[in-house]
Amino acid sequence: MNYLSKELAAEIVDRTMSIIRHNINMMDENGVIIASGDRSRIGDEHAGAKDALAAEKVISITPEECSALTGTKPGVNLPIVFHDEIIGVIGITGPPAEVSRYGELVKMAAELTVEQAFLTKQLTWDQRLREETVIQMIQGADLASLDFLERAERLNIPLDGQRTCLVFELPSADMKPAFIKKLEKHLTAKDLYANISLKEIAVILASVPTKSRSELFSSWNSWLSQWKTIRGALGEQADQLQQLPFSYQSAKQTLKIAKNSCRLFDYREFAIPVLLSKIEHPDQEIHFRNIWDHLSQADQKGELIHTLLCYIEENGEIGETSSRLFIHRNTLNYRLRKVEIATGCNPKRFDDLFKLYTAITLFSPFCANEQF
């Protein structure tokens, strides 16, 4: 594995030369200069570095010895060791008696920089693997495969226990870095998240036995309130791994149904419209389409549909509905009768009211802007 890239070598050279007033060279495992304060030397072979690699120790070069060595200047050359392997050489240009005192400090600083870069890269790689695992979990793909199980174990991702998906929709990809930074601080050690697209982030929340769903929703709703233009939805709880795809889809579909407001929504408040939106059988769709067509033709201003939705929200209570609409009970009964005449469905009958509700949910753009 190449631990010492040209970019990292250049960073080490720049950092070191900002502290000591001597030229610094970085050579790879073959003794070729890959970074230097003297840019003209990049790409040249360095005989002193080759000697340091072969001897596996510090090599000092005096001015007198330079004439016998190709591509060298006076200085000291120190092997860079990482994971018990010599990965390159760092050279300090100058009289050995003068620059040797910097040697071990420069070598240590270089090795620490390599280690830091490796750990950062490893963390980035682990995060990518975690995200791929999260995506696989919410898609339900090959959850019993040995590769998936071994990866989950290596990343210390528990596959048992109750979990709930939370989906966030951002208006712009530019907001994502700041959003993720705050999100990571709010998540617990057992929670997971993944970037699904430029504007979507999915979170898998681990169950907390002492916290109810309403408390969980309230907590996240309060946290999300700091973002005025970001929307989120809490999906159905998954009691086992195989149910996570539905938890994710229920959250996504809730966001689709609850179009307007920028806040957090709970799938359980939108369960019926979400489930009805999945009706795809042509015969079923035609049946409800006919009801919708007759209703919409008789309701050009949307008054009957709005009345029906209020009537449903008030559980069919004539008094409560008429008060909410600021109309007389007789006016309400007149509107409900108009619905029956137009569609053949009597809103005062539960089965007919459900048919009307289904038709509105499936086909009405007005309904998509209402809160159920």
Low-confidence stretches: 368-372
Percentage of residues in DSSP E strands: 15-25%
The main sheet orders its strands as 2-1-5-4-3
CATH hierarchy class name of the largest domain: Alpha Beta
Task: Tell me what the structure shows.
Helix content is 50%, strand content 16%. It is α+β, with helices and mostly antiparallel strands. It has a 5-stranded antiparallel β-sheet with strand order 2-1-5-4-3, with helices on both faces. A 5-stranded mixed β-sheet has the order 7-8-6-9-10, with helices on both faces. Strand 1 and strand 2 form a beta hairpin. Helix 11 crosses helix 15 and helix 12 crosses helix 13. The radius of gyration is 34 Å and the shape is rod-shaped.
Descriptive key words:
alpha+beta, five-stranded antiparallel sheet, Beta-Lactamase, Alpha-Beta Plaits, Arc Repressor Mutant, subunit A, 372 residues
